Amino acid sequence: MASSAPNNNTNNNLPLKPIPGSYGLPFLGPLHDRHDYFYKQGRDEFFATRIQKYNSTVIRTNMPPGPFIAHDPKVIALLDAASFPILFDNSKVDKRDVLDGTFMPSTAFTGGYRTCAFQDTTEPEHSLLKSFFLHILSSKHNTFLPLFRSLLTDHFNNMEESLAGKSKEASYNTSIGAAAFTFIFRLLTDKDPNTTVIGSEGPKLVETWLGAQLAPLATLGLPKIFNYVEDVLIRTVPFPAWAVKGSYNKLYEGVSTAGTAVLDEAEKLGIKRDEACHNLVFMLGFNAFGGLSNQFPILIKWIGLAGEGLHKQLADEIRTVVRDEGGVVSLAALDKMTLTKSVVYEVLRIEPAVPYQYAKAREDLVVQSHDAAYEIKKGEMIFGYQPFATKDPKIFENPEEFVGHRFIGDGERLLRNVFWSNGREVDEPTADNKQCPAKNLVVLLCRVYLVEFFLRYDTFAFDWKPLVLGPTVTIKSLTKCSNF
Ligand code: HEM
Q: By CB count within 10 A, which of 35, 71, 407, 433 is most buried?
């Protein structure tokens, strides 16, 4: 049923089946699955082989990290676009403490608080904190474009300098990571991190702090002989928060001193000042920097892989619209760039930056795949592997192919099946749901990135390799714009 109407509606005629799959023997089963997942098969093959084996896109399996970090690694995995959206239904699923999956890092990483992203919608504090975030973002609406555009100028200059230097190449991740950190810090506080104790170390401080929390979910992709050593080292006992306290404290102090205005706002809303500050650090470091510093390399990777043909089409569209608008890059101008918009959605579809979502069944419930219905018991952990939902061949034609114009015109109806933000692309984040509050900001930033890039360059050459949780991109050349 390729590319026909999105098939997510309840169908009462589907047969009710038991969920196939296996958790294996206690202790050994989770270790076996974890080894398959990280080292023997890799995550796509891990799920693909199990779909085949059990002839189902809803299966039982263990998810890493397993023993001894997670006491219960058992999940019900949703691997298609029909079943996945149950994870967005807050009346049916509980999102308490499941941000990182089957384990939760110590709250010592976050000043003793369970920050907003760990809270369920039934917790009053979630709604209070989420309202605060949504309020900050909407009040900064007029800052997004000028601030991001000026930081992109620095980012492009910085890459050009590196290309002109000895190595003749530029580390894309380092350059865009610095821009992303400064953007969010300035957006939240109106101050440059360089004027605080953070200095230019923001990305490094966040990466140290994040690395200690998320290490059990990662692999460095080392040669095979190191696999067991790596596995034992990072998945037996959690990294203690005190080991990265120095980095975290610097981030906290930076936000606390630069963010007096926004912290005053939080107090007015009834949030304790230190709780607000820990939440801002978490949003800045984990949600925003963690998301964006992965998203932009994903964006440039897919644009690069698509080749010069697409670069020319994007440059033509962007330059024509900007020329027609008298040289101004405004929100109205961005809205007229239909290919640019569609390309960004296609990137978000083909490689969602946060590929996993978890939730626990609030009650006994029934989830439907395209061809069967399955019962899930109250308290069972549900896990969605998003790339398999947004590359579901029953929804998207040629799902593995990057199709830049996929979401133009009639294709827009497929946007309801783009899930990167922990919600449908046609839905909006609210204080009462768990959708990313920066959903529209992220789409905007990706579009502005492409606009500024193709106003300045015709095309580029690059290399990339997968590393830990996303691609590492090296820019090899940037060809300056020839006709604008
Ligand atoms: C490309 C970048 C980003 C991606 C891919 C992303 C993705 C997500 C996802 C998938 C979730 C839900 C996690 C879950 O519950 O399973 C989420 C939540 C959240 N995101 Fe984003 N995000 C990004 C950028 C941002 C930015 C820039 C901000 C803030 C300025 C932000 C703030 C948040 C917050 C506060 C939550 C928790 C929402 C809640 O608890 O209701 N994110 N994000």
A: 407
Structure tokens at 380: 């069972």
- The string of pLDDT tens digits covering residues 395-437 is 999 999 999 999 999 999 999 999 999 999 999 999 999 999 9
95 lines ligand 1 (CB under 6 A): yes
User: 239: which DSSP letter?
Assistant: P
Q: If you measure from the C-alpha of residue 126 to the centroid of ligand 1, how many angstroms do you get, rounded to a whole number?
A: 14
CA atoms within 13 A on the CB side of 397: 10
Is 303 close to ligand 1, i.e. is its CB under 6 Å away? no
Query: Cα separation of 47 and 42, whole Å?
Result: 9
Over residues 27-33, the mean pLDDT reads 97
Write down all domains in the chain, each with its CATH number in brackets.
Answer: 16-480 (1.10.630.10)
- Cα(206) to ligand 1 centroid in Å equals 16
pTM of structure: 0.96
Q: Is 121 in the pocket of ligand 1 (CB under 6 A)?
A: no
Convert the pLDDT of each residue in 205-236 to its tens digit: 999 999 999 999 999 888 999 999 999 999 99
CB-based contact 308:200 (threshold 8 Å)? no
Decide: 122 and 94 in contact? Cβ < 8 Å.
yes
Task: Give residue for tokens 């644009």.
Answer: 303
Residue nearest to atom 14 of ligand 1 (CA): 99
* Phi and psi torsions of 173, nearest 5°: -60, -40
